[in-house]
Specification:
single chain; 22 strands; 8-stranded mixed beta sheet
Length: about 475
């Protein structure tokens, strides 16, 4: 019998698990996928948002900045990759100045104290490689970038080290509410818990419906992206946004914590969980990115991908106890869900406190976790490299198996130590990794997650040719 069972091991579920591991509670996390961070949490912009864009009347507006403020300390404790870069919302029109001022005012209402509107001269000083036609921008000093999958992995590793239990490859197929507990049935086992937290991401509505909770609806909104080689990331210093629309923050141009360049996303409401990429949509994204900079080298595209966001019927986060006692929904966590996730976890703790749940501090709680060394590449012997693009050795690859989360796929290794994330996208190192693991009698599913899910991605070489015609 668990005190609390969490359904979903994305960035929100992992934050909740880690936060609750600070208390003397029996906690379990159920995840239907073979690894944590397999849904929206791994396929997004990787931005730690400022907190000015979401309306202050909505929960996602009020909670974003609270989450953003925690990233620096969390990175010190968990070493997952985070940099404060600042962001700019760019405008090439005098007419947009009022809109920028409204964004600034909204940010102040959300608690921000690091916003200011800058002029063309200041913009060019910050970003010498963007187009010169931008007259004004809203500058947020505290916005940044992070590694979302490393963040989620770090949170869950630390939570496990502090006593929580993680159950992978277990899809919830039925839930029954008993007198004082929930009976949760998966494809592999049954679990009992006094409190149930629904953090199932895109599947949160389905989980709620199993208990007869039809209080919210979710729709899927897809967004597609380009990722460029590390040589391109150094051209940009800050997270660059265009003026936002009703569907989101518009096309962004940003470097990643690893030095790559990322552009996207667009926004399209979907009827199904569609993760395919589409050449027409990608071409439109690229055209819009040219409004920001024409310095991007098309030949340096290394991959495209699509991410899904779960949009609730009220276009806000749903974080509340259901009408079903002890069943808590954490649903509709769209952007800025990654940024807000540490604050969402604290919000859940407050809900539990207000319910009268005894929360005794876990005096043995250890907030620290060792990273995978992705940001420290000194003194590498080139002869030892398995992944040449990302400079990864056999020792670093095998380190993945010394961690608390079981490794089931090659892509799980990639998300931890980046082997296969370089220019060749694993074409050279994946066979080597397979050979190493087979020699060590490690039993994995040697397909990639993309092949398991039958995701169709645009051929990047064909796409490069089409994009050159745009120029």
């Amino acid at each position: 019998m668990f005190d609390i069972l969490i359904i979903g091991a994305g960035v929100v579920g992992a934050n909740i698990a880690r936060e609750l591991s600070k208390y003397k509670l029996d906690i379990g996390v159920i995840e239907k996928e073979p690894d944590v961070c397999m849904g929206s949490s791994k396929a997004n912009s990787a931005i730690v948002h400022g907190g000015y864009a979401e309306d202050h009347t909505k929960l996602k507006g009020r909670i974003c900045y609270k989450g953003r403020k925690k990233f620096e300390q969390l990175n010190k404790e968990l070493d997952f990759g985070y940099y404060k870069t600042g962001s700019l919302v760019l405008s090439d029109s005098e007419e947009d100045l009022d809109s920028l001022k409204k964004l600034e005012e909204n940010g102040i209402k959300n608690g921000l104290n690091d916003l200011k509107i800058v002029n063309r001269k200041e913009i060019q000083k910050m970003e010498s490689n963007i187009n010169e036609n931008f007259q004004y921008a809203l500058f947020c000093e505290g916005a940044g970038i992070c590694s979302p999958f490393e963040f989620t992995i770090a949170l869950m590793e630390n939570a496990i080290d502090n006593g929580i239990q993680l159950f992978l490859n277990e899809e919830v197929i039925n839930i029954e509410k008993k007198n004082d507990y929930f009976n949760v049935v998966t494809n592999d086992a049954e679990y009992r818990s006094r409190i149930l937290i629904n953090s199932a991401g895109l599947g949160a509505e389905k989980i709620a419906n199993m208990l007869g909770d039809f209080s919210f609806n979710l729709k899927f909104r897809s967004g597609q992206y380009f990722v460029f080689d590390k040589s391109e990331g150094e051209k940009i210093n800050k997270v660059l946004f265009q003026m936002p629309t009703k569907l989101g923050k518009g096309i962004l141009v940003s470097k990643t914590v690893y030095g790559n360049l990322i552009i996207g996303p667009d926004a399209l409401d979907e009827n199904t969980a569609n993760l395919n990429t589409d050449s027409d949509r990608l071409k439109e994204i690229y055209k819009k990115s040219l409004l920001v900079t024409d310095k991007i080298n098309i030949n340096k595209i290394i991959r495209t991908f699509s991410g899904l966001r779960a949009i609730s019927n009220n276009d806000d986060f749903i974080i509340e106890e259901s009408s079903i006692k002890n069943f808590i929904n954490v649903a509709g966590i769209q952007s800025p869900g990654l940024t807000s996730s540490p604050a969402i976890a604290e919000y859940i703790v407050e809900i539990l406190k207000n319910k009268g749940l005894p929360l005794e501090k876990n005096k043995s709680f250890n907030p620290y976790r060792k990273g995978y060394g992705n940001y420290n590449k000194d003194n590498i012997n080139k002869n030892d490299l398995v992944c040449i693009c990302e400079e990864k050795t056999e020792e670093e690859i095998m380190e993945c198996f010394n961690r608390p989360i079981p490794i089931n796929t090659i892509d799980a290794i990639k998300r931890r130590v980046r082997a296969g994330m370089g220019m060749c996208q694993g074409r050279r190192c994946k066979p080597k990794i397979k050979e190493i693991l087979e020699n060590k009698n490690v039993n994995l599913d040697y397909r990639t997650d993309i092949e398991i899910k039958n995701i169709d991605r645009v051929d990047r070489f064909k796409l490069m040719k089409e994009l050159k015609e745009i120029n």
